[in-house]
C-alpha cells in the first residue's frame, strides 16, 4: 500500500492567543514593527486575504473538505507564525505557548487520523523553549514551530544547546518558519517582505545552524525548513567555496556546508519546478516533503499537481508526496 499524501506546511489560526496578548506591554510595538516591515499596500491586501480564509484556518470540517479537494490525506498543522509573540516576557510567553499548544492539539484531535500538530516555543526565552517542547510532546504534538531568530539571538546562540539536545533526544520535529525579515523597510513595497524576506531568513537561519556546528553536535536533529530552505540550496556552492578558502568560514563546522543539506528536511514550496528539482538533487529525494502553506495566498492550492509537474522519477515523486513525511512523523 502506498504512503498517504502528507502536506507538512499547513497553518491554524488561534484567536485565543491573539486575545491573550492584546493590549499587553510590547504588543502594540510588535504590531507597529510588522506594519513597517510589510508596508501599507501589503497590509491592505493581507487583511481581506486572511479574513476570507478564516474558515479554512479554524474550522476542522472546512479544512478536511479542502484537503479532500487537494488530494491530501494528512496535514502537519502549525500555528500561524503571527502567534510567535517573541516580544513577550517570560510569564506571558509561558501562557502563549501553553495556550497555543493546547489549542492546536484540540484542533487536530477532531480528526486524529488526518491531522498532526506542532506547538510553539518561545525562542526569546531559551530555557522556556525546552519546557514548551516538552509540553507540546506531552499533548501528542510532533514538535514545535520556530522562527529564524529571536530578538538579539541567532539560532547559533549557545543558549539554544539544551533545546537542540532535547529535540534530538525526543525525536521531535522543529519546523523552521520565518516571520518577519530584519531588512525591515528596505522590503516594505511590492510584498518584498515576503517574496525576498522569507527566503533570506531561511538561508540565514540554516547557515547559522550549519556553520556553528549545531548539526555536528546534534546529528539526529530533525529540522524541517519551510519554503524549501529559501535561497540556500541554489547558492550552497558559495558557502562551500568560503568554507574551503577561508579559515574564518571553516572554523565552526567539520564538513562542507553542502553536506549538511542531507541532514535537514525541506518542504517543496519553492514555486519553480527547476528549483524544486535542484533542491531534490542537493538535499536528496528522501529529504524533501510536500508543503503547500495552506491556506494562504503565498501557498499553492494544488500541491500534488505542482509536484507532478516537476517530473521526478516515480520513486522520488512518491517519497516527496508522502513517504518521507510518513517516516518522519511515524504515521501508521
TrEMBL record:
GO MF term list: carboxy-lyase activity; hydrolase activity
Keyword annotations of the record: Hydrolase, Lyase
One GO biological process term: secondary metabolic process
GO CC aspect terms: cytoplasm
Xref: Gene3D superfamilies: Metal-dependent hydrolases
InterPro entries: ACMSD, Amidohydro-rel, Metal_Hydrolase
Domain Amidohydrolase-related: 6-330
Pfam families in alphabetical order: Amidohydro_2
Origin: domain of life: Bacteria
Protein's name according to its UniProt entry: Amidohydrolase
Species per Swiss-Prot/TrEMBL record: Streptomyces actuosus
